[in-house]
Design goal:
Elements: H1 17-34, H2 45-75, H3 82-86, H4 89-93
Length: 94
């Protein structure tokens, strides 16, 4: 019986840190670059309104992406994973 790490694979040992890292990056960049209001002296109020609205949309987009990455980290890719497309035993067992 071969018990080397390469031959024993379980679905619990799948790497889960990349989706969490990208989710944290999305939240961080959203909060740093898209929160708050923009006030540029000399610009018309209409233009500032559009800029602030787009910043709010981009903040919501970043938070939505983070939620998707967190769901991917918790549930896994399943049938859409590369292992499942290759027909690997690990993906079929999961």
């Amino acid at each position: 019986m071969n018990s080397s790490p390469a031959s024993s694979s379980s679905s619990a040992s799948r790497p889960r840190s990349p989706p969490w890292t990208v989710a944290l990056f999305c939240v961080f960049t959203g909060l740093v670059f898209h929160s708050g209001t923009v006030a540029i002296e000399g610009w018309p109020e209409g233009a500032l309104g559009w800029i602030n609205t787009l910043n709010q949309i981009m903040l919501m987009k970043n938070i939505t992406l983070a939620g998707g990455y967190i769901a991917l980290a918790i549930v896994g890719a399943g049938a859409y994973s590369i292992d499942a497309r290759r027909g690997s035993a690990q993906a079929v067992a999961a």
